[in-house]
Design goal:
With about 325 residues, the protein is mostly helical. Helix content is about 75%, strand content about 0%. It has 18 helices and no strands. The protein has helices spanning about 10-20, 25-40, 45-55, 60-75, 80-90, 95-110, 120-135, 140-150, 155-170, 175-185, 190-205, 210-220, 230-240, 245-255, 265-275, 280-290, 300-310, 315-320. The N and C termini lie far apart (about 70 Å).
Length: about 325
């Protein structure tokens, strides 16, 4: 092209750099950017965005941040796409505080997401909220959730599920129930995933009767069909309450009446409950049934059996049957 006397311009470089980035050749794209700067051809935000996004996808966040700083030095204002890429990269590396700060900078610069980018923002916020919940920074997660709502990015069921899970894990069941009510008020369908979180939270808070009421109301009142996880959670809750006979009845009902096949977790939950309650015979029957279904004892069950063998509560023949 240049051999024929046609000089490359910003459009030419844009096309080439974008093509290199799409092919994952970020180093060639970066070299072209240096070349155009050397030639005095003004670069724009589109070129930088293509490279930053490519670097983030290649897990080269340090280089992406350096490029971000360079575009600011050159007086090129980052846009929503720039910030989205960098926040995504920070989240991938679990640098959640920095990602949150970057979101604040993004908003302060007037780069609020448009309707088209709301979906991307929801995904980013979901990652942030989950990270803060896992780190025990529940207040930060709640503040971010409220900021998300105020900015107009409507939370989805995944967002609610992450926040509700964090609240329940941290003993804030009442607040979780208030949020569930808000979902109902806004005509949002929580789905079985959210109900599983709430039922699990109720059981952990020793409100097993409340969990049972919610469990029983799912299909007839809320139009939501319980899945194997729902049954397993409820069975575990009944076992913790000491209502082992009710747990057995629900286990039988899920398969024979409701057509929900127990999974490995269901069997192991009930087996441990029977072992803890000195129901060795029932445990043996459950283990045999579990093995016929192709399942095996999990780590928690194995540890419990080993402990019971060591203190003489089980004999060695039990171990051979389990293995």
């Amino acid at each position: 092209m240049e051999a024929k006397g046609i000089e490359a311009n910003v459009v030419t470089y844009n096309s080439l750099i974008s093509s290199f980035c799409k092919a994952g050749r970020w180093d060639d794209g970066a070299q072209l950017l240096k070349d155009m700067i050397t030639r005095g051809i003004a670069s724009d935000v589109v070129i930088f965005n293509a490279l930053i996004d490519c670097l983030v996808k290649e897990r080269k966040l340090k280089e992406a941040e350096e490029l971000y700083n360079e575009m600011i030095t050159r007086g090129i204002d980052p846009d929503t796409i720039t910030y989205n890429s960098l926040i995504d990269g920070l989240c991938i590396e679990n640098r959640l505080d920095e990602a949150n700060q970057m979101m604040d900078v993004m908003v302060s610069k007037g780069c609020e997401p448009s309707i088209v980018t709301y979906g991307v923002m929801v995904v980013i916020v979901n990652i942030l909220i989950q990270g803060f919940c896992q780190e025990g920074k529940l207040n930060v997660a709640k503040e971010l959730f409220q900021e998300m709502v105020s900015e107009g990015a409507r939370p989805d069921t995944v967002t609610y599920g992450i926040l509700l899970d964090g609240l329940c894990d941290n003993g804030e069941l009442e607040e979780a129930l208030e949020i569930l009510d808000k979902m109902h008020t806004s005509k949002m369908d929580p789905g079985i995933g959210v109900y599983n979180i709430i039922i699990h939270g109720m059981c952990n808070a020793r409100k097993v009767d409340d969990a049972w009421d919610l469990f029983s109301s799912l299909l007839p009142l809320k139009g939501v069909k319980a899945d194997v996880k729902t049954y397993t959670i409820m069975i575990a809750g009944l076992c913790k309450k000491g209502s082992l006979s009710e747990a057995d009845m629900l286990f039988k009902k899920m398969g024979e009446e409701d057509g929900i096949a127990p999974n490995e977790c269901t069997y192991n939950t009930l087996i441990r409950a029977h072992l803890g309650g000195s129901g060795v015979v029932a445990s043996v029957e459950l283990i045999e049934e579990m093995k016929r279904c192709g399942f095996a004892a999990d780590g928690s069950t194995m540890k419990m059996v080993i402990d019971m063998l060591s203190d003489g509560r089980l004999n060695k023949s039990f171990w051979s049957m389990l293995s």
